[in-house]
Specification:
Blueprint: H1 2-47, E1 54-55, H2 59-69, E2 74-79, E3 82-88, H3 93-104, E4 112-117, E5 121-126, H4 130-139, E6 140-141, E7 158-161, E8 178-181, E9 195-202, H5 204-211, E10 227-232
Parallel strand pairs: 1-6
Antiparallel strand pairs: 2-3, 2-10, 3-9, 4-5, 5-8, 7-8, 7-9
Helix pairs in contact: 2-3
Length: 234
Amino acid sequence: MRLVFLLCIFFLFLNCEDKKTKKKIITETTVTKQEKKEITKDTIKEVKRAFPKLDSKSAMAFFMEYDKHHKENKVRITTDFGIIDILLFNETKFHRSNFIFLTKQKYFNGTQFYRVINNYIVQAGNSDDKKTARKRAHIGRYLLPPDTKRGFKHDRGAVSMPSSEINNPYKLASPFEFFIVQQKGGAHFLDGDYTIFGKVIRGMDVVDKIAAVETDDGDWPDKNIYIRNAEIID
């Protein structure tokens, strides 16, 4: 009887140990499945991007196609000093499409007027915070070719695209930034070097207020001036 009792105790102990082992394996397997699930979600999210990550080789084809489906040409920019409405020129379709695309991606929201020179220009679309850098990385790194022979001049109120800071003999445009000519009488010495792709149709008084602020030695306003919102209005 004692032997039978001891054998029962032994098999009961083995059964408990076996259950503990199975429980441990199930927990680890569940975690592994959860990790796989999260990886799958991230992968699906990447596959389901609304647009491809752009580079200088793919950007032109992308915007050529984008132009066929996005014909809007008016953007409202809400700044710390008021509203600026911009009309984008259909003649410079790649630059117009780029600006519409970035507006719809909410890129400009939270960027700043980072270069301000009174009676010359106010330049915007950049920032010193990490959010802007992350937005650019998500959208992609690319440049746009110049389109300077459409007959547009750097008159007061003209919206133009600066060249990239990289070694850039062909004046390729930095797509994330833009400047507005504030100079009375225009800044026509810029003609032929930079692509004019729009003009201010409302809010030059706001541009004048921005241009009048105090700046540091690098022309950055002493107090940050933000683009709070950029939206399509037509």
